[in-house]
Amino acid sequence: MRQFTMTVLLALVAAVAFTSARSAADGPKKAEAKSENKLVGTWKLVSAKYGGNEITFPEGTTTLKHVTPTQFMWAFYDKDGKVGAALGGPYTLMGDKYEETPEYGVGDVLEPLKGKPQSFEWKVESNKWYHNGKLSSGLTIEEVWERVQKK
Question: Which of 16, 29, 75, 146 could form a disulfide with 86 if both were Cys (CB 3.0 to 4.6 A apart)?
Answer without folding.
Answer: 75
